[in-house]
Design brief:
By secondary structure, the protein is α+β, with helices and mostly antiparallel strands. Helix 9 crosses helix 12, helix 13 packs across helix 15 and helix 14 crosses helix 15. The chain is elongated and about 90 Å long. It contains 18 helices and nine strands. Helices cover 44% and strands 11% of the residues.
Length: 495
């Protein structure tokens, strides 16, 4: 570390910095000096200066006294938002210098006193934004993305796919809007948005690479006019958009952080649509009846089959004592996503990543496509090198083609599920090549060297990972959209 550098600021320190800048802003608006305000609240000016510079956290009693003297609600000091453009730049500079990428450069820590010109501050912050952009572009290779995704999957496996903090937040919010029974309605989602300071607006011209856009300045969440393909209902989309504010997210500083935020907002939406207490009650009763079924869970809460299966994994280990597995595969048998804590041997690459890997032809997620009637759940036992597993599978069709949603448990736990009496059983020895990847001798001798297919190129093979402030989103298209839909500012004489 360079001699003039300092330790990176923590989030708590940055919060104190914002609080201090809000205090300075309100003090300046009131036309008071540090000495004058200090006399009124019984604190020396040097102590107030430390608070304004983010170096000391004030007691609640002092905040209340400051609020009274400045005619400001004490809560206004704690909103977490910079009070003006200059302060926002100062906080952004401090946050930028606290990143690992900047710390690794070993450069001095630059402070932003009031004597530092606005243009100089703008230039410094602009350089940091460009540095962060280039850092993201360099880091978001397919290998880096797969590595980050694998780390998140293993982390969630270690905690049984359960996030208590988000469960508590979601439960409290649903209680506050009065939701108690039945599926969460669109009106209740709109009520939650209003409570959080947002208005839901449905438009038909969202940029193609966005599912929703939140206008933080005007408190608007823009959504498509109807559900979009892939199981993302409007209720879920709206809840995911709100989750960024509820969970205190800031702009992602890396692709890994972007993926982590996506996981959290999806979890929040699911925890709102399928509240923990009611879900546990429903599933525990079904377990007592030895009649657990994802399709019943889905129908009871009015969500998609995939959402129900994934939500089941959040609750099964924590509240039912069941280790489980869950995955989505496309029609060609490639894993799209997966989770397990029951030992199901997912195929993986040398780094442990499972996305894009081919499922064994004998797993339920592939054999389910062999049925003529695919409207009901399909059940199968599969013998693997890690033991025997029972799986229920629901197939469907989406814009990008057919897919399978699988959810199951180890053999001994199948007794709690409907479909346990299935007679369908397959034996898989994958990753042994002889299991399903080596043609039978007759086929091999007949066709080897006599066929030349034209392989379909997967779109992602040659494409770089999306870049931008929010990966995959075109900043220009987003800002043009917001400008088009933002409410008009009142004329000068109306202000």
């Amino acid at each position: 570390m360079a001699p003039n550098s300092v330790s990176p600021a923590t989030e708590a320190e940055l919060d104190r910095l914002v609080l201090g800048k809000r205090l300075r802003f309100f003090r300046s608006q009131a036309g008071l000096t540090l000495e004058q305000l200090g006399e009124r609240v019984g604190v020396v000016a040097s102590q107030l200066s430390l608070i304004e510079n983010g170096r000391r956290e004030p007691k609640l009693s002092l905040l209340q006294a400051l609020g009274r003297e400045l005619s400001v609600d004490p809560a206004a000091f704690l909103t977490g938002e910079a009070p003006d453009h200059r302060s926002a730049l100062e906080v952004e500079l401090e946050r930028a210098q606290s990143t690992r990428s900047y710390q690794r450069l070993g450069l001095p820590h630059v402070r932003a006193p009031r004597t530092l010109g606005d243009e100089t501050l703008e230039a410094l912050v602009g350089l940091h934004r460009e540095l962060a952009q280039r850092s993201r572009a360099a880091a978001t290779t397919s290998e880096e993305a797969r590595r980050a995704n694998t780390e998140i999957r293993l982390k969630m496996r270690a905690q049984d796919n359960y996030i208590q903090d988000i469960e508590l937040v979601a439960s409290d919010l649903m209680r506050r809007i009065g939701h108690s029974t039945g599926a969460v309605t669109h009106r209740q989602v709109a009520m939650l948005a209003e409570m959080l300071g947002f208005t839901l607006i449905f438009v038909d011209d969202l940029p193609s690479n966005t599912r929703s856009i939140t206008d933080l300045e005007n408190g608007r969440i823009y959504l498509p006019p109807a559900s979009i393909p892939g199981g993302h209902g409007l209720r879920s989309l709206a809840l995911q958009a709100m989750a960024h504010r509820v969970l205190g997210h800031h702009e992602p500083r890396s692709y890994a952080e972007f993926l982590e935020q996506r996981l959290q907002i999806n979890y929040f939406a699911a925890a709102c649509l399928i509240p923990e207490a009611r879900a546990v009650e429903f599933l525990q009763q079904a377990k007592r009846n030895r009649n657990l079924a994802i399709e019943d869970f889905r129908d009871a809460f009015g969500v998609t089959h995939e959402a129900a299966a994934h939500r089941f994994t959040n609750i099964a280990t924590q509240h039912l004592g069941l280790a489980v597995h869950h995955y989505r595969a496309d029609g060609a048998g490639a894993l799209v996503r997966g989770y397990e804590n029951d030992g199901l041997p997912f195929p993986s690459d040398s780094e442990g990543s499972i996305e894009g890997e081919s499922l064994c032809h004998k797993w339920g997620g592939r054999t389910a496509f062999n049925r003529t009637n695919r409207t009901s759940e399909f059940y199968q036992y599969t013998d693997t090198p890690n033991g025997t597993f029972w799986t229920s599978v629901q197939t469907g069709d989406a814009e990008l083609g057919p897919f399978a949603i699988a959810c199951g448990v180890a053999f001994d736990d199948a007794k709690w599920f409907r479909g346990r009496d299935t007679t369908v059983r397959r034996s898989s020895t994958c990753p042994d090549e002889a299991c399903c990847r080596t043609p039978e001798p007759g086929l091999l001798s007949r066709w080897e060297g006599k066929a030349w297919p034209s392989a379909r190129m997967h779109a992602h093979v040659l494409s770089p990972l999306p870049s931008g402030t929010f990966p995959g989103v075109d900043d220009t298209a987003m800002y043009e959209f917001l400008s088009k839909h933002a409410p008009e500012e009142p004329a000068a004489e109306e202000r």
